[in-house]
Amino acid sequence: MNKNQTSKHHQLIIIGAGGSGLMAAVTARDMGIDAAIIERNDRVGKKVLTTGNGRCNITNESTATGTDEAVALSRKYHSNQAGFPLPVLQQFGVRKTIDHFLTLGLPLISLEDGRMYPMSLQAASVLDIFQLALDDRNVPVYFKNIVLDVIYSPNHPRFTIICQTETEEQAVYTSEYLFLCTGGLTAPKTGTDGSGYELAQRLGHTLVHPVPGIVQLKLDYPHLKELSGIKFEGWGHIIVRDDVIRSEYGEILFTDYGISGPPILQLSRKAAFQLAKEESVILSVDLMPGRTEEEVVDFLETRWGVFGHRTVADSFIGIINRKLIPILLKEAGIDQEPHLLCQDLSWKTKKKFYRLLKQWEFKVTDTNSFTNAQTTAGGIDTTELKEGTLESKLVPGLYLAGEVMDVDGDCGGYNLQWAWSSGYVAAKSLANHLSGV
Ligand SMILES: Cc1cc2nc3c(=O)[nH]c(=O)nc-3n(C[C@H](O)[C@H](O)[C@H](O)COP(=O)(O)OP(=O)(O)OC[C@H]3O[C@@H](n4cnc5c(N)ncnc54)[C@H](O)[C@@H]3O)c2cc1C
């Protein structure tokens, strides 16, 4: 070690003071483990601050009603290894999360769709509570340390962690156990630049190609500027090779680059993975979700019969967003006939309208970038981790928690829930291992 290097040893070092790292540190300390955190930022949980529009949607209690909470909860998660999240969620699910935050001093409240937030409705209070919990337990956090490399040795100490500090001096930390809680690639300004993937890969792990999740979609459509700002309540379906691979319902919003809104964010991970495989991806939207195709035909036939004397454009007033009408006319090829009456509509044009209202198809060209995404789909391959403990099968003493691994959740508090659950379980598993359980 040269004279500019500082060195500290802890039983457990946790890289990353995000949701999973904070939960792991507090839990580990409570179980008698000498834990410390290394964080590149100058404060804990920078990303948590931005969550839930500044209110932090901590978890979601809508799955916590039945007898098998964990099974219902596990359906909100995605991974190449579908069953991987369940044993983690069985150990630390929504109920335990609510109780745990209460014991830390943070009561939660439930708002829309079971989404839970801190009672203060301020994300900052989640971090303040964690900082207080770390202080209460004397858990050191080495801020402004960017981990550049981790060296594993079968001897003691097992892990040597090499960091760059703000003074350009290198800091070297050693530990017997290491938790990688470095997050994925989303919102890189909060400290997550994918360096955790590189550290894991250098230790022998494999990366499942990461793509942006919970993100808006870009569409190839010539009239996006005219559509931009239009909202509607409806279905969105992702179609690949003529198969619908996922459908979601809710408020959809056209934007000047494409499309957004809760259902689109939920659909985005499927679209992103297919685009990464260079598949052609279609988004089909249903503007009349309350009616079947047959009912739409009946409804319009009746309407056009009763109001045969009105223009086609006027026949849509009151049933769809007014701004959509000129674009639908364009799509049906009658925008050059503004005075065309309903009674004069051809069968061919009518069929185009039926299709547009139930299955309006758009070509998806891309997702927005990781900068706009809320989560990373993909990550370190979970087949290389022990189920239910999160310890690496390749490197003894290494555990992963949070978004760094190939597990991502739906929108609605499920990604933070994964951070809490996996952070807790990694710490608990290490404590069990140390006590020989
Ligand atoms: C805008 C936005 C809104 C969101 N809203 C919600 C929501 O309301 N509800 C919800 O459930 N989820 C939400 N999410 C997702 C959720 O925030 C993340 O899934 C979760 O925070 C991931 O936790 P983590 O501990 O795995 O990683 P992170 O919180 O990303 O933390 C990783 C930490 O590791 C540090 N780090 C990384 N590499 C290094 C290194 N080499 N050296 C040192 N430190 C390093 C980073 O600085 C960071 O502090 C949102 C995400 C975004 C971007």
From TrEMBL:
Keyword Heme: no
Cofactor(s) this protein requires: FAD
Entry keyword Acetylation: no
Domain RsdA/BaiN/AoA(So)-like insert: 212-374
Domain RsdA/BaiN/AoA(So)-like Rossmann fold-like: 11-428
Keywords attached to this entry: FAD, Flavoprotein
InterPro entries (alphabetical): BaiN-like, BaiN-like_dom_sf, FAD/NAD-bd_sf, RsdA/BaiN/AoA(So)-like_dom, RsdA/BaiN/AoA(So)_Rossmann
NCBIfam families linked to this entry: aminoacetone oxidase family FAD-binding enzyme
Protein name (record): NAD(P)/FAD-dependent oxidoreductase
